[in-house]
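Think of the structure tokens as a kind of shorthand, similar to the way a musician reads notation: each symbol stands for something richer, in this case the local conformation of the backbone. In the example below we present two proteins back to back. Begin with the first one, reading the sequence and then the tokens, and try to describe in your own words what changes along the chain.
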Amino acid sequence: MTPNSPEPIVRAMLAAVHRRDHEHSTSCCRPHSVEVVHLGSASIAVCHDCRFESGFHTVRDCERAAADHRYRTTA
């Protein structure tokens, strides 16, 4: 992260939208619904069921994290 980076703002925005749009009252979907959000040269994988997020990485790394998270939550 560089000085004056928008990263904290983007993280807070994604977390707020995530909580607003996909709140589960009882149980999560199986497998979890994970989205890879592309933000310029970086991406982030965000789970709409348990609020998992991968952090900012390459598209490939985020897609791998999303696939792994879906696989771990199929049961």
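Once you have a description of the first chain, move to the second and do the same.
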Amino acid sequence: MAEAALLTTVLALVALAFWLTTDSDDDNGGGGLMQPSLVPVPVRRQG
């Protein structure tokens, strides 16, 4: 029974480590939100 608990714990830790390393949505892989990208907006100048 101890072997089953140990195996479950090890698999859970491996799955958690894998999830934390691959679940990043930004460029540097550090987690958190993505940096906003600048989009050019046309401006009409009156005058």
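Compare your description with these statements about the second chain. The CA atoms of residues 4 and 10 lie 10 Å apart.
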